[in-house]
Amino acid sequence: MPAKSLEQQLAASVQTHLRDLLPFNFLADPSIDDIGRIRDLLDRTPSGKSAQSLETILSCIERATIAPGSIELALNTEAVAAWLAIAPACINVDVLRHSIPFQFRKRGVETKLIIGAAQTKALDEVLIRNIAKAHQYYNAIKQGETFEEIAASENLSKRRILQVIDLAFLAPDLVKSVMNGVQPAGLTAKWLGQNPLPSDWQVQRRIVATR
After folding, report:
1. CA–CA separation, 149 vs 141, rounded Å?
2. Residue 57's Cα: distance from chain center in Å?
3. Cα–Cα distance between 187 and 136 in angstroms, integer?
4. Is-contact 75 61, C-beta < 8 A?
5. pTM of the model
6. Angle value at C-alpha 91, between 64 and 31, nearest 5 degrees
């Protein structure tokens, strides 16, 4: 497999990993402004589109270890912080280690390394977006904003903000299942909007298991 293609796939996996975690636990104490600014920066650094952007992302990889069926990546805190223009202390270092699956695919006489598992189920983009928004709203509340102020800035009703923010208290494993597209079929943005879950994670899991 050409080194360039491997580098591009690794860079894309790093970018996707950080973008997916950004609304949740990438930053130790995130603000809406931080999340928006970093997301814009991630989107403006297209992996593989230029040698400079590729080098920037690859410089964040401190170590890549190949295991059966997966590649274990460890990112460098200082390099990630420099790329995203934030203080290293702001980063939750636990998220800088992650595993990405890979597989070999044969096409004629050529064997290709494909990094990242193909989705077997379509992601619920609406639910993912709502969960991300919920964490943004909750962080804003922790920083002293009122529901009315958030509603005004989002051009939404206070009732809608209250409805969405409940998703900030979903159990982490439920959030992960949504991000991976493997949540129960009945666990949708519409159903959650009509059936607010209790804050107790064990109760959440029992309810969701029946969907």
Report:
1. 10
2. 17
3. 21
4. yes
5. 0.55
6. 140
CA angle 180, 96, 2 (to 5 degrees): 80
> Could you tell me which residues are beta bridge partners of residue 66?
71
In this prediction, residue 10 carries a pLDDT of 87
Residue 9 has which token pair? 């796939």
Neighbours of 40 (CB within 10 A): 10
The torsion defined by the Cα of 29, 31, 37 and 40, in degrees rounded to 10, comes to 90
Strands 97-107 and 110-115, by their bridges, are antiparallel
**AA identity, residue 148:** E
Q: Give residue 108's pLDDT band: very low, low, confident or very high (50, 70, 90).
A: low
CA distance 211 to 189: 13
| Phi-psi group of 61: left, alpha or beta (phi > 0 → left; psi -120 to 50 → alpha; rest → beta) | beta
Domain boundaries, the chain: 3-115, 125-209
